[in-house]
Structures are given as C-alpha cells and as structure tokens.
Amino acid sequence: MANRRLAPAAEQPQSFAFTPENADWARGQIAKYPEGRQASAVIPLLWKAQEQNGGWLPQKAIEAVADELGMPHIRVLEVATFYTMFALEPVGRFWIQLCGTVPCDCCGAKELKAALHERLGPSGKVTADGNFSWLEVECLGACCNAPMVQINQDYYEDLTPESLNKLLDDLAAGRPVKVGSQIGRISSEPKDAVNTLTDESLFDGSRVSAWRKRFEQTEAAGEESVKKDEAASTEARVKDETKPARPSSGRANESNAVDAPAERASAGQAPVKPEDQAEARDAKAPPAQDPAVEDDKILRSEPPHHPATIGAGDDVPEGENPEARADAVGTRPKGLAVPRDDRPDDLTKIKGIGPINQRRLNDLGVWHYDQIAAWSPQEIAWVGAYLAFPGRIDRENWVGQASDLAGSKG
C-alpha cells in the first residue's frame, strides 16, 4: 500500500465548487440524515466531488465538502485519506485498483502487480498517454473470484497477467471489454467442475414434496395416537421414578409465618397491625407524570447547543428574571390577550414544545401557529432566552414547523 498523501501543490486547483446539478444532489443526500447528523453524508459528497473533478480529490474539494457539512477540514481529510476509493492524486482515464490482500495474493495478485509495474511503471503515476494509472488497495470484496482489479467503476475477476494485459490493450484501443469474470464463471460458482449439490431432486421440488407428504401423514394419524404414546410414556416414567415428590435437599422444613394476617386473624387479632395501617396512610404515592411532561423536563435539562440565531448565546445569566434575561438578547414578540375565536392551536404538535412550554407560551400571549411562524430572529432569541434553552428554536425549526402547520390548517 502506498502512503496516502495529497497531491503536490503544483497539481492542486485553486478552487472547487459543486456544479448546480451536483449541489442539488448533495443537498438531497444531506436531507436523508436527521438534524445534527449531516456529517453522515461525508462519503457520498466526497464521491460526487471526486467524480466531478475527473476521478480524483483535490484539497479544495475536501475543504468544500467540509464547509458544506459544517465539519472541521481535518475530519474530512481523515476520511479521504483512509479510504482508497478516494484518489488523492490525478489518475488516468482508466484508474486500476489492484486488490493485494490475502485471497488475491494467494491466487496470483503478485504476478498481476509485476505485470502492471512492468507495463505502466510505478503505482500512483499516470502514463504518458494519460490512459492509465494504478494503485494497490485493500480488499475489494470479490475474494472468491481472485485475483481481481477494479477499473473505474467495474470489477474484472479471475485474471492472469496475460488476460490483464489483453484487457488493458482493449481499453486503450476503445474496444468493448467483458466486465466480471474473465474465464466465463457466473457470479461466484465453482471455478472448475461442479462436484457438490448435484442431486436434481434438490431443485425440482420432489424433495420438498416428500417432506410435506411425511408431515401430512403424521398429522393424519390423529391426536389419539399421540395421547396414547404420552400416556404410555407417563406410566413408564412413574414406575422408574420412585423418589418422593418433596425433594430431599437437606433443608429444614419451613415454618408458617407467625405474624402473617391469616395467622393473626386465626388468633383473634386484627389482621393488620395498627402501626402498619398508620404507616400506609402516611405514605404518599408518587404522582403520575404525563410522558410529554417528562420529555419536556428531559429536553430542558440537556445542555444548550450553540444557536444559529444572533444574540441567543450561551452566556445568558441563568439567575436573572426570565423576562430580564430575555430582554438582554432580543425583542419580545407581540402576544394576544386571548386566542382568536377562543380556539387556541395545539402548539405541542411542534416538535420540541411540550405541555409545559405550551403553557409558558400561552402566558406570553402566543396561542397560534402563525404567531410563531412570523417570529423574527430577535424574537426567536428573546423566546429562547426566556425558556432557558437558547438555540433550540433554530435547531428544531419551530418557525418552519409552525408555518407548515398554519398552512395545513388553512
């Protein structure tokens, strides 16, 4: 394996940006992941950047993907340098990746490597005609058809130095080539003669039919014969098992509890002692909690994230009066004294608003979806500080959710 390093500065482009079509595609990939997990799209975005850049990843493309996902540049560089599917230097028109791990190595990968080195020169270098470059990589997952190479997007398997050289001749000349096994093998079937699973009854259904017939005959015998067999088995077991029902484990016989309610009643006493009754009266059952209320408490206890709204920082003093704290970072939204038509909207349909937060918003005069949908950044900052979780409104997109709910409400 060659060292994984970026191409020299002289070969690096000055900038990189996705085309409009690829930018739309990238946004679609990012949208597949939940809020806060956009970094999961790093591999598909790097793959698309490599494809757009002619088959290799320059430094500016890595940085552009990092900026798109809000990741540190070094984290995306770590991904790009780890996976050999990403080429870090310019490649030829046909980029050959030679699998060099154990199965391929045992089946002739060394000979393929020697053939590539003799024909194309050292790995990582593009030939003078610009057609080929090659690299030895880790397992490509076609072990049963070893040895093999991947050329651009296709696998070529069951290779020899001779068949590999012919394949490269055909690619250079623009002639059609056969993808997959080069010896006519289909998928992962045995390389030579088929010596196993040769019984045709395994595949024509007759074996399964025989099994089904046997089960149907057993069932047709009826439950009566089964009962007879069980009875005979029980009788035989009783004859053989002469031990008493109570196991002789050597433990002392347990005595009856002398202070149990039944014992007290038989002795003419009250079944429950007065002190036990008093203790039961004094005990208070824990109040049942609405699951939504519990969720709201959990959400309010999580550490605040860095907010996207300007002014709603984490440095808001917690000890101040909620309104004073909120006034320091934003503008209080206008509220209504009562809901319109005396019909408030169910604000708990907005993800992140539980029953407690709904009551607090109602206290501020916020009763309807369209009120939240109209909040400005300064008003978002004020409400976030007032509710003591700055940044959460942006993170959970209350405004967007409220806008959608208001639209569906009509």
Describe the secondary-structure layout.
Blueprint: H1 20-30, H2 42-52, H3 59-69, H4 73-82, E1 94-99, H5 102-120, E2 132-137, E3 149-151, E4 154-157, H6 161-173, E5 180-181, H7 206-220, H8 223-240, H9 261-266, H10 274-282, H11 291-301, H12 322-327, H13 355-363, H14 369-373, H15 377-386, H16 392-395, H17 398-409
Parallel strand pairs: 1-2, 4-5
Antiparallel strand pairs: 1-3, 3-4
Helix pairs in contact: 2-3, 3-4
Describe the overall structure.
The chain has 410 residues and is mainly α. Among the domains are: 9-82, NADH-quinone oxidoreductase subunit E (Arc Repressor Mutant, subunit A), CATH 1.10.10.1590; 94-181, Glutaredoxin (3-Layer(aba) Sandwich); 292-409, no CATH class. Helix content is 44%, strand content 5%. It is built from 17 helices and 5 strands. The protein has helices at 20-30, 42-52, 59-69, 73-82, 102-120, 161-173, 206-220, 223-240, 261-266, 274-282, 291-301, 322-327, 355-363, 369-373, 377-386, 392-395, 398-409; strands at 94-99, 132-137, 149-151, 154-157, 180-181. It has a 5-stranded mixed beta sheet, with helices on one face. A hairpin with a 2-residue loop joins strand 3 (149-151) and strand 4 (154-157). Helix 2 packs antiparallel against helix 3 and helix 3 crosses helix 4. The longest helix has 19 residues, at 102-120. The radius of gyration is 37 Å and the shape is flat. It starts with 19 loop residues before the first helix and ends with a helix. The relative contact order is 0.06.
